Protein backbone atom coordinates (compact mmCIF):
# COMPACT_ATOMS: atom_id res chain seq x y z
CA UNK A 1 0.00 0.00 0.00
CA UNK A 2 1.07 3.57 -0.69
CA UNK A 3 2.10 5.70 2.27
CA UNK A 4 0.63 9.14 2.75
CA UNK A 5 1.56 12.31 4.61
CA UNK A 6 -0.41 14.06 7.32
CA UNK A 7 -2.07 16.48 7.49
CA UNK A 8 -4.22 15.69 4.47
CA UNK A 9 -5.45 19.31 4.52
CA UNK A 10 -2.61 21.53 5.79
CA UNK A 11 -3.26 24.91 7.30
CA UNK A 12 -6.42 26.20 8.95
CA UNK A 13 -8.91 23.35 8.29
CA UNK A 14 -10.47 22.45 11.67
CA UNK A 15 -13.45 20.28 12.68
CA UNK A 16 -13.53 18.00 9.62
CA UNK A 17 -16.68 16.10 8.72
CA UNK A 18 -16.80 13.48 5.97
CA UNK A 19 -19.32 11.42 4.02
CA UNK A 20 -18.99 8.82 1.27
CA UNK A 21 -21.17 8.55 -1.82
CA UNK A 22 -20.30 5.31 -3.59
CA UNK A 23 -16.61 5.72 -4.54
CA UNK A 24 -16.42 9.44 -3.78
CA UNK A 25 -15.63 11.15 -0.49
CA UNK A 26 -16.60 14.68 0.50
CA UNK A 27 -15.29 16.69 3.42
CA UNK A 28 -16.04 20.07 5.02
CA UNK A 29 -14.32 22.14 7.72
CA UNK A 30 -15.06 25.14 9.94
CA UNK A 31 -14.36 28.71 8.82
CA UNK A 32 -15.40 30.94 11.77
CA UNK A 33 -15.37 34.63 10.63
CA UNK A 34 -13.94 34.01 7.15
CA UNK A 35 -15.98 34.19 3.93
CA UNK A 36 -16.97 32.21 1.92
CA UNK A 37 -17.76 29.64 4.57
CA UNK A 38 -17.29 25.89 4.87
CA UNK A 39 -14.98 24.77 2.04
CA UNK A 40 -15.97 21.45 0.54
CA UNK A 41 -13.38 18.98 -0.74
CA UNK A 42 -13.60 15.88 -2.92
CA UNK A 43 -11.43 12.76 -2.89
CA UNK A 44 -11.42 9.27 -4.33
CA UNK A 45 -8.69 7.81 -2.10
CA UNK A 46 -9.03 9.72 1.23
CA UNK A 47 -5.49 11.08 0.75
CA UNK A 48 -5.60 13.46 -2.22
CA UNK A 49 -8.23 16.19 -1.98
CA UNK A 50 -9.37 19.00 -4.25
CA UNK A 51 -11.51 21.95 -3.23
CA UNK A 52 -14.71 22.00 -5.29
CA UNK A 53 -16.23 25.10 -3.75
CA UNK A 54 -17.79 26.44 -0.57
CA UNK A 55 -21.10 25.50 0.98
CA UNK A 56 -21.82 29.06 2.15
CA UNK A 57 -20.78 31.33 -0.70
CA UNK A 58 -23.50 34.00 -0.61
CA UNK A 59 -23.99 36.84 1.82
CA UNK A 60 -27.57 35.69 2.43
CA UNK A 61 -26.22 32.36 3.72
CA UNK A 62 -23.41 33.73 5.85
CA UNK A 63 -24.15 36.96 7.79
CA UNK A 64 -20.90 37.26 9.73
CA UNK A 65 -20.90 41.07 9.59
CA UNK A 66 -19.14 42.60 12.58
CA UNK A 67 -18.57 39.24 14.21
CA UNK A 68 -15.87 38.84 16.84
CA UNK A 69 -12.64 36.98 16.04
CA UNK A 70 -13.22 33.21 16.28
CA UNK A 71 -16.97 33.69 16.23
CA UNK A 72 -19.01 32.60 13.23
CA UNK A 73 -19.22 29.13 11.70
CA UNK A 74 -18.44 26.27 14.10
CA UNK A 75 -18.14 22.56 13.40
CA UNK A 76 -20.14 21.72 10.25
CA UNK A 77 -21.41 18.18 9.71
CA UNK A 78 -21.79 16.83 6.17
CA UNK A 79 -24.16 13.96 5.35
CA UNK A 80 -25.71 12.45 2.20
CA UNK A 81 -29.10 10.75 2.04
CA UNK A 82 -31.19 9.65 -0.95
CA UNK A 83 -29.47 11.93 -3.43
CA UNK A 84 -29.34 15.03 -1.22
CA UNK A 85 -26.36 16.49 0.64
CA UNK A 86 -27.02 18.07 4.03
CA UNK A 87 -24.69 20.43 5.91
CA UNK A 88 -25.64 21.45 9.45
CA UNK A 89 -23.64 23.91 11.53
CA UNK A 90 -23.76 26.73 14.10
CA UNK A 91 -23.38 30.46 13.58
CA UNK A 92 -21.97 31.69 16.90
CA UNK A 93 -22.42 35.28 18.14
CA UNK A 94 -23.78 36.62 14.87
CA UNK A 95 -25.18 40.15 14.98
CA UNK A 96 -27.93 39.43 12.44
CA UNK A 97 -28.56 35.71 12.99
CA UNK A 98 -27.24 33.10 15.41
CA UNK A 99 -27.93 29.48 16.14
CA UNK A 100 -28.06 26.15 14.36
CA UNK A 101 -29.06 25.84 10.72
CA UNK A 102 -28.78 23.47 7.79
CA UNK A 103 -28.50 23.82 4.03
CA UNK A 104 -29.01 21.27 1.25
CA UNK A 105 -27.77 20.57 -2.28
CA UNK A 106 -28.02 17.84 -4.87
CA UNK A 107 -24.54 18.70 -6.18
CA UNK A 108 -21.86 19.09 -3.49
CA UNK A 109 -20.18 21.77 -5.60
CA UNK A 110 -23.38 23.80 -5.24
CA UNK A 111 -25.47 25.75 -5.39
CA UNK A 112 -26.55 25.13 -1.79
CA UNK A 113 -29.90 26.28 -0.44
CA UNK A 114 -30.62 29.22 1.78
CA UNK A 115 -30.34 28.36 5.50
CA UNK A 116 -33.08 26.52 7.34
CA UNK A 117 -32.78 27.86 10.89
CA UNK A 118 -33.70 25.37 13.62
CA UNK A 119 -35.62 27.67 15.92
CA UNK A 120 -36.05 25.18 18.78
CA UNK A 121 -32.43 24.03 18.92
CA UNK A 122 -29.72 25.39 21.17
CA UNK A 123 -26.04 24.98 21.81
CA UNK A 124 -23.45 24.26 19.16
CA UNK A 125 -21.79 21.56 17.00
CA UNK A 126 -24.98 20.04 15.57
CA UNK A 127 -24.92 16.78 13.61
CA UNK A 128 -27.37 14.62 11.66
CA UNK A 129 -28.07 10.90 11.75
CA UNK A 130 -30.24 9.12 9.15
CA UNK A 131 -31.54 5.88 10.65
CA UNK A 132 -32.43 2.86 8.55
CA UNK A 133 -36.08 3.10 9.65
CA UNK A 134 -36.46 6.40 7.78
CA UNK A 135 -36.27 8.65 10.83
CA UNK A 136 -33.77 11.52 10.96
CA UNK A 137 -32.18 12.74 14.17
CA UNK A 138 -30.43 16.02 14.96
CA UNK A 139 -28.03 16.12 17.86
CA UNK A 140 -25.63 18.65 19.29
CA UNK A 141 -24.05 20.02 22.45
CA UNK A 142 -25.06 22.61 25.02
CA UNK A 143 -24.30 23.56 28.63
CA UNK A 144 -25.35 20.67 30.86
CA UNK A 145 -28.44 20.90 33.03
CA UNK A 146 -27.50 21.32 35.77
CA UNK A 147 -24.02 22.56 34.92
CA UNK A 148 -21.82 21.19 37.68
CA UNK A 149 -18.66 23.05 36.64
CA UNK A 150 -17.36 25.47 34.01
CA UNK A 151 -17.27 23.78 30.61
CA UNK A 152 -19.66 20.97 31.61
CA UNK A 153 -21.69 20.18 28.47
CA UNK A 154 -24.07 17.48 27.33
CA UNK A 155 -25.24 15.92 24.07
CA UNK A 156 -28.91 16.33 23.17
CA UNK A 157 -30.98 14.48 20.52
CA UNK A 158 -34.27 15.29 18.79
CA UNK A 159 -36.04 14.02 15.71
CA UNK A 160 -35.87 16.22 12.61
CA UNK A 161 -38.73 16.65 10.15
CA UNK A 162 -37.07 17.09 6.75
CA UNK A 163 -40.29 18.25 5.10
CA UNK A 164 -40.76 21.16 7.47
CA UNK A 165 -37.09 21.46 8.42
CA UNK A 166 -37.96 21.63 12.09
CA UNK A 167 -37.32 19.66 15.23
CA UNK A 168 -40.14 17.64 16.71
CA UNK A 169 -40.91 15.18 19.46
CA UNK A 170 -39.25 14.51 22.78
CA UNK A 171 -35.75 15.67 23.59
CA UNK A 172 -33.21 13.14 24.86
CA UNK A 173 -30.00 13.87 26.75
CA UNK A 174 -27.49 11.21 25.70
CA UNK A 175 -24.14 11.86 27.39
CA UNK A 176 -21.87 14.41 29.03
CA UNK A 177 -18.46 12.93 28.28
CA UNK A 178 -16.39 10.02 29.51
CA UNK A 179 -13.69 11.35 31.79
CA UNK A 180 -14.63 12.55 35.26
CA UNK A 181 -14.84 16.32 35.15
CA UNK A 182 -14.43 16.36 31.37
CA UNK A 183 -14.93 19.78 29.81
CA UNK A 184 -16.51 20.64 26.49
CA UNK A 185 -18.07 17.41 25.33
CA UNK A 186 -18.62 18.51 21.74
CA UNK A 187 -18.56 17.55 18.07
CA UNK A 188 -20.95 14.56 18.49
CA UNK A 189 -21.63 12.12 15.66
CA UNK A 190 -23.93 9.07 15.76
CA UNK A 191 -23.34 5.97 13.61
CA UNK A 192 -25.26 2.70 13.37
CA UNK A 193 -23.03 -0.32 12.82
CA UNK A 194 -24.92 -3.59 12.71
CA UNK A 195 -27.63 -3.17 15.32
CA UNK A 196 -25.59 -0.95 17.62
CA UNK A 197 -25.58 2.84 17.81
CA UNK A 198 -22.25 4.56 18.48
CA UNK A 199 -21.80 8.10 19.73
CA UNK A 200 -18.40 9.66 19.02
CA UNK A 201 -17.67 12.78 21.08
CA UNK A 202 -14.70 15.09 21.60
CA UNK A 203 -13.87 16.42 25.04
CA UNK A 204 -11.13 18.21 26.94
CA UNK A 205 -11.22 21.43 24.92
CA UNK A 206 -9.62 22.02 21.53
CA UNK A 207 -6.11 22.74 22.75
CA UNK A 208 -3.51 20.33 24.11
CA UNK A 209 -5.98 18.28 26.21
CA UNK A 210 -8.28 17.45 23.28
CA UNK A 211 -9.48 13.84 23.20
CA UNK A 212 -11.99 11.48 21.59
CA UNK A 213 -14.37 9.24 23.52
CA UNK A 214 -17.08 6.85 22.40
CA UNK A 215 -20.26 5.37 23.83
CA UNK A 216 -22.79 2.86 22.46
CA UNK A 217 -26.43 1.91 22.86
CA UNK A 218 -29.05 -0.45 21.47
CA UNK A 219 -31.45 2.41 20.78
CA UNK A 220 -30.63 5.74 19.20
CA UNK A 221 -32.17 7.52 22.19
CA UNK A 222 -29.97 5.59 24.62
CA UNK A 223 -29.03 4.81 27.29
CA UNK A 224 -25.39 5.11 26.13
CA UNK A 225 -22.53 3.38 27.92
CA UNK A 226 -18.98 4.60 27.45
CA UNK A 227 -16.12 2.42 26.30
CA UNK A 228 -13.96 1.18 29.19
CA UNK A 229 -10.95 2.28 27.11
CA UNK A 230 -11.94 5.96 26.85
CA UNK A 231 -10.52 8.20 25.65
CA UNK A 232 -9.94 6.19 22.50
CA UNK A 233 -7.58 8.83 21.11
CA UNK A 234 -5.60 11.67 22.65
CA UNK A 235 -2.08 13.06 22.41
CA UNK A 236 -2.16 14.98 25.69
CA UNK A 237 -0.14 12.20 27.30
CA UNK A 238 2.67 12.65 24.74
CA UNK A 239 3.74 16.12 25.87
CA UNK A 240 3.64 19.54 24.28
CA UNK A 241 6.81 18.88 22.30
CA UNK A 242 5.22 16.04 20.30
CA UNK A 243 5.05 16.90 16.56
CA UNK A 244 1.25 16.40 16.53
CA UNK A 245 -0.86 17.69 19.43
CA UNK A 246 -4.49 18.44 20.21
CA UNK A 247 -5.98 15.43 18.41
CA UNK A 248 -9.79 15.32 18.42
CA UNK A 249 -13.05 16.35 16.76
CA UNK A 250 -13.28 13.35 14.45
CA UNK A 251 -15.68 11.77 11.97
CA UNK A 252 -15.71 8.16 10.76
CA UNK A 253 -16.03 6.76 7.24
CA UNK A 254 -15.98 3.24 5.80
CA UNK A 255 -14.52 2.39 2.39
CA UNK A 256 -16.29 0.07 -0.08
CA UNK A 257 -13.75 -2.61 0.88
CA UNK A 258 -14.76 -2.45 4.53
CA UNK A 259 -11.87 -0.42 5.96
CA UNK A 260 -12.66 2.20 8.59
CA UNK A 261 -10.91 5.56 8.69
CA UNK A 262 -11.15 8.68 10.77
CA UNK A 263 -10.64 12.31 9.82
CA UNK A 264 -9.80 14.56 12.75
CA UNK A 265 -8.21 17.83 13.70
CA UNK A 266 -4.79 18.26 15.26
CA UNK A 267 -2.03 20.86 15.42
CA UNK A 268 1.63 20.92 14.47
CA UNK A 269 3.50 23.16 16.92
CA UNK A 270 6.76 24.79 15.90
CA UNK A 271 9.04 27.49 17.24
CA UNK A 272 8.00 26.44 20.73
CA UNK A 273 4.41 25.64 21.55
CA UNK A 274 2.99 27.81 18.78
CA UNK A 275 0.34 27.04 16.20
CA UNK A 276 0.53 29.51 13.32
CA UNK A 277 -1.00 26.91 10.99
CA UNK A 278 -4.06 26.51 13.18
CA UNK A 279 -5.93 23.24 13.53
CA UNK A 280 -5.47 21.04 10.47
CA UNK A 281 -7.20 17.94 9.09
CA UNK A 282 -5.49 14.59 9.66
CA UNK A 283 -6.31 10.99 8.72
CA UNK A 284 -5.84 7.79 10.69
CA UNK A 285 -6.95 4.18 10.45
CA UNK A 286 -9.64 2.69 12.71
CA UNK A 287 -10.15 -0.98 13.55
CA UNK A 288 -12.71 -2.70 15.77
CA UNK A 289 -12.01 -4.73 18.87
CA UNK A 290 -14.59 -6.18 21.30
CA UNK A 291 -17.28 -4.08 19.66
CA UNK A 292 -15.42 -0.79 20.10
CA UNK A 293 -13.48 1.39 17.65
CA UNK A 294 -9.71 1.47 18.10
CA UNK A 295 -8.10 4.54 16.57
CA UNK A 296 -4.66 4.10 15.06
CA UNK A 297 -1.77 6.40 15.93
CA UNK A 298 -1.90 9.80 14.23
CA UNK A 299 1.45 10.08 12.49
CA UNK A 300 3.12 12.40 9.99
CA UNK A 301 3.43 9.49 7.54
CA UNK A 302 1.43 6.28 7.55
CA UNK A 303 0.26 3.41 5.39
CA UNK A 304 -2.64 4.60 3.27
CA UNK A 305 -6.09 3.19 2.54
CA UNK A 306 -6.49 0.17 0.28
CA UNK A 307 -7.86 2.37 -2.50
CA UNK A 308 -6.46 3.15 -5.95
CA UNK A 309 -4.42 6.38 -5.70
CA UNK A 310 -6.24 9.28 -7.31
CA UNK A 311 -4.22 12.49 -7.61
CA UNK A 312 -5.69 15.74 -8.80
CA UNK A 313 -3.87 18.27 -10.98
CA UNK A 314 -1.71 20.54 -8.86
CA UNK A 315 -2.91 24.10 -8.47
CA UNK A 316 -0.55 26.77 -9.82
CA UNK A 317 1.70 28.39 -7.22
CA UNK A 318 1.17 31.78 -8.83
CA UNK A 319 -2.15 33.53 -9.41
CA UNK A 320 -1.82 35.94 -12.34
CA UNK A 321 -5.42 37.13 -11.89
CA UNK A 322 -6.33 36.29 -15.46
CA UNK A 323 -9.75 34.83 -14.53
CA UNK A 324 -12.92 36.85 -14.05
CA UNK A 325 -13.58 35.37 -10.59
CA UNK A 326 -11.34 34.83 -7.59
CA UNK A 327 -9.82 31.37 -7.24
CA UNK A 328 -11.51 29.31 -4.49
CA UNK A 329 -8.55 29.49 -2.11
CA UNK A 330 -9.03 33.25 -1.63
CA UNK A 331 -11.08 34.42 1.35
CA UNK A 332 -12.55 37.61 2.78
CA UNK A 333 -12.62 38.64 6.42
CA UNK A 334 -16.33 38.67 7.33
CA UNK A 335 -19.17 39.15 4.86
CA UNK A 336 -18.34 41.38 1.89
CA UNK A 337 -21.45 43.51 1.32
CA UNK A 338 -19.89 45.52 -1.51
CA UNK A 339 -17.53 44.54 -4.34
CA UNK A 340 -14.32 46.14 -3.05
CA UNK A 341 -12.28 44.10 -5.53
CA UNK A 342 -12.39 43.57 -9.29
CA UNK A 343 -10.58 41.38 -11.80
CA UNK A 344 -12.06 43.07 -14.85
CA UNK A 345 -11.38 46.84 -14.54
CA UNK A 346 -7.76 46.16 -15.35
CA UNK A 347 -7.54 42.72 -16.94
CA UNK A 348 -4.74 40.56 -15.58
CA UNK A 349 -4.76 42.39 -12.26
CA UNK A 350 -6.57 42.18 -8.93
CA UNK A 351 -7.68 45.70 -8.09
CA UNK A 352 -8.48 46.52 -4.46
CA UNK A 353 -10.59 49.61 -3.93
CA UNK A 354 -9.67 51.82 -1.01
CA UNK A 355 -12.11 52.03 1.90
CA UNK A 356 -11.89 53.33 5.47
CA UNK A 357 -12.11 49.86 7.06
CA UNK A 358 -8.99 48.55 8.78
CA UNK A 359 -7.74 45.18 9.97
CA UNK A 360 -7.84 46.57 13.50
CA UNK A 361 -11.66 46.59 13.45
CA UNK A 362 -14.32 43.87 13.52
CA UNK A 363 -15.32 44.74 10.01
CA UNK A 364 -14.84 43.70 6.39
CA UNK A 365 -11.61 45.40 5.23
CA UNK A 366 -10.27 45.40 1.69
CA UNK A 367 -8.36 42.17 2.18
CA UNK A 368 -8.05 39.16 -0.13
CA UNK A 369 -6.19 36.42 1.76
CA UNK A 370 -5.32 32.73 1.73
CA UNK A 371 -4.28 30.28 4.44
CA UNK A 372 -0.69 29.85 5.55
CA UNK A 373 -0.24 26.11 5.04
CA UNK A 374 3.45 25.49 5.73
CA UNK A 375 5.94 26.25 8.48
CA UNK A 376 8.41 27.41 5.81
CA UNK A 377 7.07 29.30 2.82
CA UNK A 378 7.69 32.24 0.50
CA UNK A 379 5.15 34.75 -0.78
CA UNK A 380 5.84 37.29 -3.49
CA UNK A 381 3.54 39.80 -5.16
CA UNK A 382 3.76 42.70 -7.60
CA UNK A 383 1.78 45.82 -6.68
CA UNK A 384 1.12 49.25 -8.15
CA UNK A 385 -0.01 51.83 -5.60
CA UNK A 386 0.42 55.54 -4.95
CA UNK A 387 -0.65 56.29 -1.37
CA UNK A 388 -2.34 59.46 -0.19
CA UNK A 389 -2.91 60.74 3.34
CA UNK A 390 -2.99 57.76 5.76
CA UNK A 391 -3.54 55.05 3.14
CA UNK A 392 -1.55 51.85 3.24
CA UNK A 393 -1.45 48.86 0.88
CA UNK A 394 0.61 45.73 0.55
CA UNK A 395 0.83 42.34 2.22
CA UNK A 396 -0.87 41.40 5.49
CA UNK A 397 -0.21 38.35 7.68
CA UNK A 398 -3.31 38.02 9.82
CA UNK A 399 -4.29 36.19 12.97
CA UNK A 400 -6.96 38.68 14.13
CA UNK A 401 -7.60 42.39 14.65
CA UNK A 402 -5.12 42.67 17.53
CA UNK A 403 -2.39 40.36 16.21
CA UNK A 404 -0.99 40.74 12.70
CA UNK A 405 2.01 41.82 10.62
CA UNK A 406 1.93 44.30 7.72
CA UNK A 407 4.34 45.00 4.88
CA UNK A 408 2.73 48.10 3.37
CA UNK A 409 3.41 51.18 1.24
CA UNK A 410 2.53 54.48 2.92
CA UNK A 411 3.18 58.15 2.19
CA UNK A 412 6.28 57.86 4.39
CA UNK A 413 7.65 54.84 2.51
CA UNK A 414 7.55 51.09 2.81
CA UNK A 415 7.03 49.99 6.42
CA UNK A 416 6.81 46.80 8.45
CA UNK A 417 4.30 46.94 11.30
CA UNK A 418 3.94 44.23 13.94
CA UNK A 419 0.72 44.45 15.94
CA UNK A 420 0.57 42.58 19.24
CA UNK A 421 -2.23 42.80 21.82
CA UNK A 422 -3.69 45.77 19.95
CA UNK A 423 -0.48 47.82 19.94
CA UNK A 424 1.27 48.70 16.67
CA UNK A 425 5.04 48.82 16.45
CA UNK A 426 6.77 50.09 13.31
CA UNK A 427 9.82 47.86 12.97
CA UNK A 428 11.53 49.29 9.91
CA UNK A 429 10.96 51.87 7.20
CA UNK A 430 12.49 52.28 3.73
CA UNK A 431 12.30 55.17 1.28
CA UNK A 432 10.64 53.68 -1.77
CA UNK A 433 9.15 55.65 -4.67
CA UNK A 434 5.42 55.21 -5.30
CA UNK A 435 4.26 53.15 -8.23
CA UNK A 436 5.21 49.57 -9.01
CA UNK A 437 6.87 47.54 -6.27
CA UNK A 438 7.56 43.89 -5.64
CA UNK A 439 6.85 42.61 -2.11
CA UNK A 440 8.05 39.41 -0.44
CA UNK A 441 7.77 37.41 2.77
CA UNK A 442 9.99 34.40 3.44
CA UNK A 443 9.18 32.39 6.56
CA UNK A 444 11.46 29.89 8.24
CA UNK A 445 9.73 28.78 11.37
CA UNK A 446 8.83 31.83 13.44
CA UNK A 447 11.19 34.12 11.53
CA UNK A 448 9.35 36.05 8.83
CA UNK A 449 11.79 37.98 6.64
CA UNK A 450 10.30 40.87 4.67
CA UNK A 451 11.81 41.93 1.35
CA UNK A 452 11.10 44.23 -1.59
CA UNK A 453 12.30 45.20 -5.05
CA UNK A 454 11.85 48.38 -7.07
CA UNK A 455 13.21 46.72 -10.21
CA UNK A 456 12.46 43.15 -11.34
CA UNK A 457 14.66 40.61 -9.56
CA UNK A 458 16.59 43.13 -7.45
CA UNK A 459 15.33 41.93 -4.08
CA UNK A 460 16.48 43.56 -0.85
CA UNK A 461 15.78 42.41 2.72
CA UNK A 462 13.77 44.91 4.74
CA UNK A 463 15.04 44.90 8.30
CA UNK A 464 15.60 41.85 10.48
CA UNK A 465 13.27 38.82 10.51
CA UNK A 466 9.98 39.56 12.28
CA UNK A 467 8.91 37.40 15.22
CA UNK A 468 5.93 35.50 13.84
CA UNK A 469 4.55 34.24 17.14
CA UNK A 470 1.84 36.92 17.03
CA UNK A 471 0.27 34.74 14.32
CA UNK A 472 -0.11 31.79 16.70
CA UNK A 473 -3.35 31.03 18.51
CA UNK A 474 -1.29 30.20 21.60
CA UNK A 475 -0.41 33.92 21.74
CA UNK A 476 -3.41 35.57 20.09
CA UNK A 477 -6.08 33.18 21.39
CA UNK A 478 -8.99 31.86 19.38
CA UNK A 479 -9.38 29.03 16.91
CA UNK A 480 -7.96 30.48 13.70
CA UNK A 481 -4.82 29.73 11.70
CA UNK A 482 -2.77 32.45 10.05
CA UNK A 483 -3.76 34.01 6.72
CA UNK A 484 -1.63 36.00 4.29
CA UNK A 485 -2.91 38.24 1.54
CA UNK A 486 -3.29 41.60 -0.19
CA UNK A 487 -4.57 44.58 1.78
CA UNK A 488 -5.60 48.21 1.29
CA UNK A 489 -6.99 50.61 3.89
CA UNK A 490 -7.66 54.31 4.29
CA UNK A 491 -7.21 53.83 8.05
CA UNK A 492 -10.57 55.31 8.92
CA UNK A 493 -10.66 57.87 6.12
CA UNK A 494 -12.74 57.73 2.93
CA UNK A 495 -10.56 57.09 -0.11
CA UNK A 496 -10.91 56.50 -3.80
CA UNK A 497 -7.39 55.17 -4.31
CA UNK A 498 -6.91 51.66 -5.71
CA UNK A 499 -4.08 49.15 -5.38
CA UNK A 500 -3.43 46.87 -8.37
CA UNK A 501 -1.80 43.48 -7.85
CA UNK A 502 -0.34 41.94 -11.01
CA UNK A 503 0.31 38.55 -9.44
CA UNK A 504 0.63 36.72 -6.10
CA UNK A 505 2.72 33.61 -5.54
CA UNK A 506 2.80 31.21 -2.57
CA UNK A 507 5.52 28.57 -2.44
CA UNK A 508 6.25 26.01 0.30
CA UNK A 509 9.91 25.88 1.24
CA UNK A 510 11.93 22.86 2.40
CA UNK A 511 12.94 22.59 6.04
CA UNK A 512 16.37 24.01 6.71
Give a structural overview.
It comes from Sphaerisporangium flaviroseum. The structure is a single chain. The protein has 512 residues and is an all-beta fold. The strands form nine sheets. Strands 25, 27, 28, 30, 35, 36, 37, 38 and 40 form a nine-stranded antiparallel sheet that branches. A six-stranded antiparallel sheet has the order 29-39-31-32-33-34, with no helix packed on it. Strands 15, 16, 17, 18 and 19 form a five-stranded antiparallel sheet that branches.
Secondary structure tally: strands:
40
The major β-sheet equals: 9 strands, antiparallel
Looking at the structure, the CATH topology of the largest domain is Tachylectin-2, Chain A
What is the C-level CATH assignment of the largest domain? Answer: Mainly Beta
Cα end-to-end separation: 30 Å
Determine the oligomeric state from the structure: single chain
Output the radius of gyration.
23 Å
Number of domains: 2
CATH architecture of the largest domain: 5 Propeller
> CATH superfamily of the largest domain, called what?
Glycosyl hydrolase domain, family 43
Spatial shape: globular
Strand content: over 45%
What is the topological layout?
Blueprint lengths: L2 E3 L11 E5 L2 E5 L5 E2 L1 E7 L6 E7 L15 E10 L2 E9 L6 E7 L10 E2 L6 E7 L5 E8 L9 E9 L4 E10 L10 E8 L2 E8 L7 E7 L7 E2 L6 E2 L10 E10 L5 E8 L12 E10 L2 E4 L5 E3 L14 E2 L12 E2 L7 E2 L7 E4 L12 E6 L4 E10 L6 E9 L2 E8 L2 E8 L2 E8 L4 E10 L2 E7 L6 E2 L4 E2 L5 H4 L6 E7 L8 E11 L4
Antiparallel strand pairs: 1-24, 2-3, 3-5, 4-26, 5-6, 7-8, 8-9, 9-10, 11-12, 12-13, 13-14, 15-16, 16-17, 17-18, 17-19, 20-21, 21-22, 22-23, 25-40, 27-28, 28-40, 29-39, 30-35, 30-40, 31-32, 31-39, 32-33, 33-34, 35-36, 36-37, 36-38
Amino acid sequence: MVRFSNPILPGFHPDPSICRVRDDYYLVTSTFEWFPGVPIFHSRDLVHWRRIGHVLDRASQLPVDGIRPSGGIYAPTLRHHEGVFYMITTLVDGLMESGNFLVTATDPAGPWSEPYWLADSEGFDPSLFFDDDGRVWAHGCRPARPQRYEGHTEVWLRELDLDGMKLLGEEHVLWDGAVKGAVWAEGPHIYKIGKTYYLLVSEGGTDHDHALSVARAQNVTGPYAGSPRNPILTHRNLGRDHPIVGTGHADLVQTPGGEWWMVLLAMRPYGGHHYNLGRETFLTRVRWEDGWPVAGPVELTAEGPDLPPHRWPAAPACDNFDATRLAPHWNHLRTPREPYWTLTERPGHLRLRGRPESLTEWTNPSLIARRQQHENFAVHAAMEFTPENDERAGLALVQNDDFHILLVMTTSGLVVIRREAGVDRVLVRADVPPGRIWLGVEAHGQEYQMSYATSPGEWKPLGEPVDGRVLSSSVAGGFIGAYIGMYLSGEGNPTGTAADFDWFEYLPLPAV
